[in-house]
């Protein structure tokens, strides 16, 4: 399990000391802050940058190679009137070595890139923030001191800081490669033909086929009949709504809540019709959760992420069903124009139903083929794991991230 980046607000941690500083005279406030800056910019235990080890921007100017006196003079002036925020950002030594955070350049990139997000949580505008920092590399305690303030606002900007958001942004940078690899797993599920391709095939390709033969008994015939029945039932309800409200839209956003609920039940039914289809959806949800563990490892955030992942992946299925029904109706309309200018209403409805039924079978055949491909990829990956004598889930995940091109990871064991 990745520990993640830690962010400590020194003002809040040393609250009593901070209150004493707040009550000091302007000159004494400036003196205390200069002592702190002088300490964090020390050479010993810090990554050397000549006279000092400070980096950052003051009044939009890079301070890395400025004289220490020039920096302290600016701090002396600002500390008399501005509220200074002090923080420490740390990472475990093993993770710092693994993810390149023993390199000062990486810390500089991290702070320069994420200072806007940190400042935002403190209520400071990006164009108004002054900041300086220094990395200390004592064995077992790699950390970065950060001091920042609003150069134009004399008051403390925000007393209610959401530290989880700050940690999340810092984690995005430090573990970017790890996150990118997990996102590839997500994309393989999202990009699956099962959820991405349209639900349309020429119905001529289905005529004369045996359902049992077509699916090689992999999907139960009762499941197929039930899905067909429910799709036709949903179409009837959708058509009635469109006629009563004089609407012809197949967009989910314009459906009433009851129809949205019916649509989602239909998506659950289709996904649940195959263990492989369910697995593909489950992989996406689980990989989303695993990514969130790396970003924040916060229980509340994990629950939110899970809910969002479920909603996202099933919305894909919802929209594909609506697109499928829309295309079936369009196909029948086009056919009717070619055959006759007038068509009995009952025959028209029957034509749409038949079109839906025929194309549904072909759709499920394509879904089944896609899931077979996913299954073979997972089998190959499992064989590789067995060859390496990998037993734990952590070892499995680490091995997968190094060999991610073999297919979807088996997250279950």
Could you characterize the architecture of this molecule?
With 413 residues, this protein is α+β, with helices and mostly antiparallel strands. It folds into two domains: 6-174, BirA Bifunctional Protein, domain 2, CATH 3.30.930; 178-406, no CATH class. It contains 16 helices and six strands. The chain has helices spanning 10-13, 15-22, 26-40, 68-79, 93-98, 104-121, 163-174, 176-190, 193-196, 211-215, 221-244, 257-271, 275-295, 299-339, 345-387, 393-402, and strands spanning 6-9, 55-58, 61-62, 84-91, 129-138, 141-150. Strands 1-4-6-5-2-3 form a six-stranded antiparallel sheet, with helices on both faces. α3 packs antiparallel against α4 (68-79), α6 (104-121) packs antiparallel against α7 and α8 (176-190) runs antiparallel to α13. The protein is elongated. The model is unreliable at 193-217, 334-343, 370-379 and 403-413 (pLDDT under 50).
**Quaternary arrangement of the chains shown?**
single chain
- Rounded radius of gyration (Å): 30 Å
Structural class given helices, strands, pairing?
Answer: alpha+beta
The strand line-up of the biggest sheet is 1-4-6-5-2-3
Overall average pLDDT: 74
């Amino acid at each position: 399990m990745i520990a993640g980046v830690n962010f400590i607000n020194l003002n809040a941690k040393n609250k009593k000391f901070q209150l004493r500083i707040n009550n000091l005279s302007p000159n004494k406030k400036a003196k205390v802050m200069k002592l702190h800056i002088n300490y964090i910019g020390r050479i010993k235990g810090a990554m050397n940058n000549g006279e000092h080890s400070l980096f950052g921007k003051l009044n939009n100017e890079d301070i890395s190679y400025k004289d220490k006196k020039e920096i302290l003079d600016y701090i002396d002036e600002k500390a008399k009137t501005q509220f200074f925020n002090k923080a420490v950002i740390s990472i475990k030594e093993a993770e710092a070595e693994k993810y390149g955070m023993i390199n000062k350049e990486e810390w500089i990139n991290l702070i320069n890139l994420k200072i806007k997000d940190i400042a935002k949580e403190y209520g400071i505008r990006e164009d108004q923030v002054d900041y300086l920092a220094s990395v200390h590399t004592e064995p077992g305690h790699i950390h970065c001191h950060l001091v920042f303030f609003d150069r134009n606002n004399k008051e403390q900007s925000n007393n209610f800081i959401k530290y989880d958001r700050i940690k999340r942004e810092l984690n995005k940078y430090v573990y970017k490669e790890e996150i990118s690899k997990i996102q590839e797993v997500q994309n393989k599920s999202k990009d699956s033909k099962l959820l991405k391709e349209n639900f349309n095939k020429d119905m001529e390709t289905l005529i004369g086929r045996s359902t049992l033969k077509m699916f090689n008994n992999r999907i139960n015939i009762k499941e197929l009949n039930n899905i067909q029945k429910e799709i036709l039932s949903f179409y009837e309800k959708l058509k009635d709504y469109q006629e009563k409200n004089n609407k012809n839209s197949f967009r989910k956003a314009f459906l009433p809540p009851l129809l949205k609920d019916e649509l989602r039940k239909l998506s659950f039914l289709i996904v649940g019709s195959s263990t492989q289809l369910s697995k593909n959806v489950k992989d996406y949800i689980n990989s989303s959760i695993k990514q969130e563990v790396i970003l924040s490892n916060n229980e509340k955030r994990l629950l939110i992420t899970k809910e969002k992942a479920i909603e996202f992946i099933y919305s894909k299925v919802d929209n594909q069903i609506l697109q499928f029904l829309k295309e079936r109706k369009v196909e029948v309309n086009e056919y009717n124009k070619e055959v006759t200018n007038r068509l009995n209403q009952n025959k028209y409805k029957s034509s749409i139903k038949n079109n839906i039924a025929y194309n549904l079978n072909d759709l499920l055949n394509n879904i089944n083929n896609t899931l077979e491909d996913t299954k073979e990829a997972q089998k190959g990956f499992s064989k590789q794991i067995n060859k390496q004598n990998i037993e734990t889930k952590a070892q499995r995940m680490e091995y997968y991230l190094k060999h991610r091109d073999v297919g979807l990871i088996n997250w279950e064991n």
